[in-house]
Amino acid sequence: MDAILLQILNGLDKGSAYALIALGLTLIFGTLGVVNFAHGALFMIGAFCAVTVQRILNLSYEVVDETQKDFLGNPLKVKATYVESWFGPEMGGAIIDWAVPIAIIFAIPIMILIGFVMERGLIKHFYKREHADQILVTFGLAIVLQEVIKYFYGANPIQTASPEALSGVANVGALFGTEIFYPVWRIVYFFFSVVIIGGIFSFLQFTTFGMVVRAGMADRETVGLLGINIDRRFTIMFGIAAAVAGLAGVMYTPINSPNYHMGMDFLVLSFVVVVVGGMGSLPGAVLAGFMLGILEAFASMNEIKSFLPGIDQIIIYVVAIIILLTRPRGLMGRKGVMEE
């Protein structure tokens, strides 16, 4: 039972990242009909927003510390951060410690702006083009963004710590009368993803803006004939989708050290999640994300891999093949989609 609960937690952890990225992908495909292969790069940029904020908060200068002496008895020069000098050692240290959550504040406008620029500057020219053209141009954009990050930040992973208060482990098994210790930050990431997903669904379901967007997803031409500028609303949704991917990347940095190819690592899996859930289906993307994350976690158990070596590397693709052979439109896709 302990092993099962642990793998469910691992699955929810992985599924959170899959669901958030797949949710953004589905928002873009459902509103604009664009297959965006640059979406993984947005996840990567979000992660490096956290890296950048952490580096800025750790900027320092040299000061003379009279309390410390070198071997000749001269005062030592030590480094002091600007943040600590402005806010004091205690408050400044806390700000530096909470760099990753603070990065969310800066990542949201940055990612929305990047989304607007991508959509207005490039994506809009491919709305009526074949999906193959969309894939080629967005995949090329992803490679360019990847190389830009590599140029400025290097090729090696960059460690980004979570706040000290959230860096330990918690006995989540106590809820079930057992002992299962799990990293606190991974639990935080899961609840963070639930809040973001719930916020997106609430926005689309209960606001006038969201209702118009959903109507436009169902019948774009009719909504346009009513005098509503649906293109502008879809551009805003592209920015929101970029922000969702960026926030997923920001909060994932303490779990997986950011590197320039992390976007590509998640991109392919996220597209599989979208296809399994159903192209254009937001609930399907979320359901498939968590489902495939849990399946991947169970497939990584030593008991499973002992008689099915390598199954953890292919289980997602095996499930995708089975589902698409039996239900081409995916778990929750609209009837007729991918079934012609």
UniProtKB/TrEMBL annotation:
Localization per record: Cell membrane
Broad class of where this protein is predominantly found: membrane
Classification via InterPro entries: ABC_transp_permease, BCAA_transport_permease
Coiled coil: none
Transmembrane segments annotated in the record for this chain: 15-35, 42-61, 98-123, 187-213, 234-255, 267-295, 307-325
Key words of the record: Amino-acid transport, Cell membrane, Membrane, Transmembrane, Transmembrane helix, Transport
Membrane topology: Multi-pass membrane protein
Similarity field: Belongs to the binding-protein-dependent transport system permease family. LivHM subfamily.
PANTHER family: ABC TRANSPORTER ATP-BINDING PROTEIN, BRANCHED-CHAIN AMINO ACID TRANSPORT SYSTEM PERMEASE PROTEIN LIVH
Protein name, UniProt field: Branched-chain amino acid ABC transporter permease
